Amino acid sequence: MDEKCIIDRFEGDYAVIEYGRTTFNLPRSLLPREAKEGDILTFDIHIDKEETKMRSQRINRLADELFRE
User: Fold this and answer.
1) Which residues contact 50 (CB under 8 A, 6 or more apart)?
2) Cα–Cα distance, 22 to 33 (Å, whole number)
3) pTM, rounded to two decimals
């Protein structure tokens, strides 16, 4: 079955998204300005490996400083 993400409605700063039998909230700021109820959404999600690596290194440095004897 090919489930679609559909904008059901807007509630304040969030869009209520239907995905099959599930709903979830998505910040409205992540959607195009022209998005409206009933629109079908597509996503292109990827992992930013470089940013993930830099964040991990930063956290490790902070942990090292915190637990230094």
Assistant:
1) none
2) 24
3) 0.72
